[in-house]
Amino acid sequence: MSSDLRQLPIGVFDSGIGGLTVLKALVARLPGEDFLYLGDTARLPYGTKTSATVERYALQAVAELVRRGVKAVVVACNTASAAALPALAAAHPALPVIGVIEPGAAAAVAATRTGRIAVIATEGTVRGGAYQRAIHALRGNAEVSATPATLFVALAEEGWTRGEVALATARRYLEPLFSHDQSAPDVLVLGCTHFPPLVDAIREVVGQGIQIVDSAATTASALAQLIQYRNLTHSAGSGATGFLVTDGEDRFARIGPVFFGRSIAPTDIERVDL
């Protein structure tokens, strides 16, 4: 494998800002790699759209990343991971592509003691059953409760991750899942990359005894193993990160740090048309 290919950035794709939680974990796990993040902010949310539409959008976004030169792609969007991974693999057979659902499912199965797992996600992810299938593939007798929590996406996008509105929304979604002590799940999977910034409100509702699984760290570990296996690891890079958006550069720079955990300079954001 040529050194030039190893030096290419890793592409990260999401419907908007939420995938920055995954990018944060990737940067922490692979500090010597460069990254190029694409948020399809003009067409979010993906979670309420049909699988065919999400697949089309994902193909367009990854084609843009490939055009700019990336050595691997992380689909940092649960909805797109559920709808588009087979199509992306078919369109780019030589490109390592990884989603967030399988790593999240593996982490949930590893964390549960009782086999009862709750998943909150977008409507599209829940409707498609991707988490249910991934969990059952690893533990066939698992009891999986999947619930759409669509309003969490809007709250996260607005930066309303704390306070009474966030807490009331968390109660509405989660109390029905965790109100029965004897049969309640012992693991909660945050099946959307927008949800981690709301973890404090979520934790207050579910209590301290529930394991909360965010697939970001597990996805970062899976990617590290994949690029090592493909001889694509580059540990001596600058750690540079570039950002592409399809709309709303100023808003991305303002809200993005809630997810990314660090400031994003407006000069590092480029607007693209897909």
Order the strands across the largest sheet as they lie in space: 4-3-1-2-9-10
The fraction of residues in strands falls at 15-25%
Number of strands: 10
- Percent of residues in helices comes to 40-55%
Specify the CATH architecture of the largest domain: 3-Layer(aba) Sandwich
**Mean pLDDT across all residues, rounded?**
94
First and last CA, distance: 30 Å
CATH class of the largest domain: Alpha Beta
Using only CA atoms, what is the Rg?
18 Å
* Alpha plus pi helix count: 12
| Element pattern in H and E | HEHEHEHEHEHHEHHEHEHEHE
Q: What fold name goes in the CATH topology slot of the largest domain?
A: Rossmann fold
Identify the overall geometry.
Answer: globular
* Residue runs with pLDDT of under 50 for 5 or more positions: none
Helix- and strand-based class?
Answer: alpha/beta
Largest sheet: 6 strands, parallel
What does this protein look like?
The protein is α/β, with parallel strands linked by helices. The protein has 2 domains: 3-99 and 217-271, 3-Layer(aba) Sandwich (Rossmann fold); 101-215, Rossmann fold, CATH 3.40.50.1860. The model has no long low-confidence stretch (mean pLDDT 94). The relative contact order is 0.20. 47% of the residues lie in helices and 16% in strands. The protein has 12 helices and 10 strands.
